[in-house]
# Entry
Amino acid sequence: MSLLGIDIGTTGCKAVAFDEEGRILASAYREYPLHFPRPGWIELDSARVMRAAREVIREVAAATRKDPIRALSVAAQGEAVTPVGRNGQFLHNAIVTFDARTAPWVAWWEERIPRQQIFEITGMPLHGMYTASKILWWKKERRDVFRKAHYFLCYSDLLFYRLGLEPAIDSSLASRTMLLDVDHVDWSPKMLNIAGIAPERLARVYPPGTAIGELGSKAARSFGLPRGVAIVTGGHDQPCGALGAGVVEPNVGLYATGTVECITPALGTRVIHPQLLENNIACYPHVVTGLFVALTFNFSGGSLLRWYRDVLGAEETARAQETGRDVYALLIAQAAKEPTDLLLLPHFTSTGTPHFDTQSKGVLAGLRLSTTKGEIIRAILEGITYEMALNVQVLRECGASISAFRATGGGAKSAFWMQLKADLLGKPVSAMRVPEAVCLGAAILAGTAIGVYPNAREAALRISRIERTYRPNPRRSRFYAKRFPLYRELYPALREWLHRL
# Structure
């Protein structure tokens, strides 16, 4: 018997089957491209995403015939939404999180409801990235799409729909739409009324870890799964990752290193603090009953290494192809061994928290003729981490201090990168034994729904294992502590100029 966790991310989809002890039995991954139809517009072809999901599920199902999958659950990127016609056809590409076309809708919302009230209802600080504004964009700019859409679905609900069930969404992912009433754990009549969106055009909201049906014969054949597999609501990818990494108690934070870099601490109570709103930090339900999470992130994140690989890393890419080594491992191996004098502003897409500035740009400051390739690579890693340190500081000021981090994602496999983070943040950073924490969190929810585990929290504490803990190097931490105030000045000093640029 195995449990299947599926992670539908921004640039790829992964499926991982686990046994009851959290050991990986099989995994599969498919990458898909982002589309940029206009400057600032970023989309995904949902047909290709669903095809990738079907392929990874089939591959894992075929590899686990001796340990057949009994239940599956889905974790998904937030905010991305697809308009779906009455017959299941996709009417438009999905608009993803960091697409900038919806920025003007911030003023539209402010004319109708105060920011504070939106934050109190939904837990979301007002921003154009949330699903609600993406739907409003179709309503104004593509009325044909809005009119024909039977559903507007996020990626977990979309996969459930493809599996033959009525669309269902869990409360953590639903929060990312800016349409959920967090206290009542259902769609907010006030927010829906303002937006002019009927609730029946959205998926039904369930708690994470709810069995919503069983897989029928037709879908079972299509996806290569056994008939009768339990289909279970999962969660937004970051809370799912927190569960999989054992971040189920206050003062511990998930540090996810992926396409988007995120820090997600677990909170014992919902925090409604002016500083959270001022710094655009959401607070919404964890996938663990009774807990909440705060979400901080940088949109460029690990994508910066991918950018470096594609633009400046031709030599390393060729060597990786020749030797079979991981290209990112080759890049990071060249990074300078000591902190640099460079400062990189990681705003290559948009800023994320705390600034939420869609007009900022990336900056590499302090270049000299003597600057080496290794220093630039390290500056990329430092810049991403400096930006996250800004968020950690805000959380601390709101009473959500983080005493230790649990790292997941591709970056957690790099000892160099993890040590750099520990040095710069001045806190221990633990790499998890199972780096695929998002899929593990989803699998835990699947197992909880069918009675394999008594509850998600106990399962996570039993299953999640630390591979290695990186403790701050005092000398490097002192350097970064002195350097941090200078980094903090970089964005404010350049903001207006970058906007004009």
